[in-house]
């Protein structure tokens, strides 16, 4: 069906891996015909689409609710950083290349001038990022989403009279067909502690299917951090509370309260004051080169030195993403690379003093809050640490075998001569 609404499109539907011939499953809206042929440099990159599981269907179904999109769009830190990134690359794409003219010219880079840019929005949701791109002068945007929210995106595109510039494709990125190479991939794929949801795998597939050599990926790279934290109030609210409830001794509930409060990771906002040391880089993701395999399991060793005497209640995880050009084209180091260089032990965050540096969307405790907040892994019991006391160990993040959208967190840590292991699942 072209140019209109599919008559039957089950919520959270996806085709099953037949992406080249999957149009009976995928319902592309082509609000604009004809442009494709003249633009078309047919791409023929066969990438095997992973099967669409029932978990994936449930995942897409969850994005059909407007509330989740409302929350994301109302997160101004998130949405305005994306808008700024788009504008920066629209307004400054020439400026950007002037900036790097010692290294490369626009023509040598093989990038078309403004107005010829073709974009794929991986997981367009309501279409907001696609519309930002069209407003910024993209020639054409393919807005792809497997959730029913794509139906709404199509209406939004029409309401904004952008149907000739934005094609909404309702289907998985793994399954839909786009018959040309694209210059830019934009996507808001980041889950809690960066890798939860495993949506980055779909961006990788889009990149390998359609991105032209030298094309742009927004965001371009990401860094996941962790740090030990102190949060005695949280412990008191969840555990000590039961010791005296309206004068009644409810301490028999304490073990259950600890289990319920601290067994699994929790997403909450902490402040910089909760953080005991500089954070450590768990994973640096270069969106131009990262592979699906590399994301299946991530392990990092750490060694912290507490900057204060405090109860050590657990670890916090958060991330940054950066919107810069391909590092291989410009040779310009990303701030993530710099962060790792600044501290050979894995790196604390580098403060970004230079306004010419790439735009960064940060979810760090000391930065303005976002809907991602921080992800906490609490211990059942706090460990009292002295100033300068060493906390070392390792963390392994693995996509759950049961549901690849879930994440297993295996933590081994030692301090003050005692060692511990904590297993948890972010689901
Ligand atoms: C975090 S939301 C972002 C929505 C929108 N881009 C925004 O910034 O408001 C991610 C969207 O990607 C979609 N999505 C995730 N994986 C996808 C895939 N493999 N193919 C198509 N859509 C996908 C989800 O259905 C969801 O609507």
Automatic annotation (TrEMBL):
GO terms for molecular function: histone methyltransferase activity; protein-arginine N-methyltransferase activity. Residues 119-215 form the Methyltransferase domain. It comes from the Eukaryota. Residues 221-326, 357-415 form the Protein arginine N-methyltransferase domain. SUPFAM superfamilies: S-adenosyl-L-methionine-dependent methyltransferases. Residues 1-45, 328-354 are annotated as: Disordered. Pfam families: Methyltransf_25 (PF13649), PRMT_C (PF22528). InterPro entries: Arg_MeTrfase, Methyltransf_25, PRMT_dom, SAM-dependent_MTases_sf. Keywords: Methyltransferase, S-adenosyl-L-methionine, Transferase. This is Protein arginine N-methyltransferase 6. It comes from Ambrosia artemisiifolia.
């Amino acid at each position: 069906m072209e140019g209109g609404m599919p008559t039957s499109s089950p919520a959270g539907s996806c085709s099953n891996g037949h992406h080249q011939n999957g149009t009976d499953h995928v319902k592309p809206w082509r609000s604009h015909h004809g442009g494709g042929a003249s633009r078309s440099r047919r791409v023929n990159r066969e990438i095997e689409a992973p099967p669409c599981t029932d978990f994936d269907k449930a995942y897409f179904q969850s994005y059909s609710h407007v509330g989740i999109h409302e929350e994301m769009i109302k997160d101004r830190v998130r949405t305005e950083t994306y808008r700024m990134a788009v504008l920066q690359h629209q307004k400054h794409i020439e400026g950007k290349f002037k900036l790097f003219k010692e290294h490369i010219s626009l023509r040598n880079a093989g990038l078309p001038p403004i107005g010829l840019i073709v974009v794929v929005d991986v997981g367009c949701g309501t279409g907001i990022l696609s519309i930002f791109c069209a407003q910024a002068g993209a020639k054409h945007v393919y807005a792809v989403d497997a959730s029913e929210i794509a139906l709404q995106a199509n209406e939004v595109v029409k309401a904004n009279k952008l149907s000739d510039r934005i094609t909404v494709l309702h289907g998985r990125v793994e399954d839909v067909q786009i018959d040309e190479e694209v210059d830019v991939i934009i996507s808001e794929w980041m889950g809690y502690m960066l890798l939860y949801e495993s949506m980055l795998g779909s961006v990788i597939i889009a990149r390998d299917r359609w991105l032209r050599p030298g094309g742009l990926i927004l965001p371009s790279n990401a860094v996941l951090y962790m740090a030990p934290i102190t949060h005695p109030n949280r412990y008191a609210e969840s555990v000590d509370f039961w010791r005296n409830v309206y004068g009644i001794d409810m301490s028999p509930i304490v073990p259950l309260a600890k289990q319920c409060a601290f067994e699994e990771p929790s997403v909450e906002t902490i402040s910089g004051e909760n953080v005991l040391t500089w954070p450590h880089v768990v994973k640096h993701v270069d969106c131009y080169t990262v592979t699906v395999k590399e994301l299946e399991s991530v392990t990092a060793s750490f060694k912290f030195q507490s900057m204060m005497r405090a109860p050590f209640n657990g670890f916090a995880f958060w991330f940054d993403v950066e919107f810069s050009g391909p590092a291989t084209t410009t040779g310009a180091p990303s701030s993530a690379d710099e962060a790792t260089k600044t501290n050979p032990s894995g790196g604390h965050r580098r403060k970004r003093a230079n306004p010419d540096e790439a735009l960064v969307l940060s979810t760090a405790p000391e930065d303005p809050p976002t809907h991602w907040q921080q992800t906490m892994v609490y211990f059942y019991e706090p460990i009292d640490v002295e100033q300068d006391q060493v906390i070392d160990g390792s963390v392994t993040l693995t996509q759950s075998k049961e549901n690849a959208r879930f994440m297993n967190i295996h933590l081994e840590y030692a301090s003050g001569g005692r060692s511990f292991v904590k297993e948890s699942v972010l689901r």
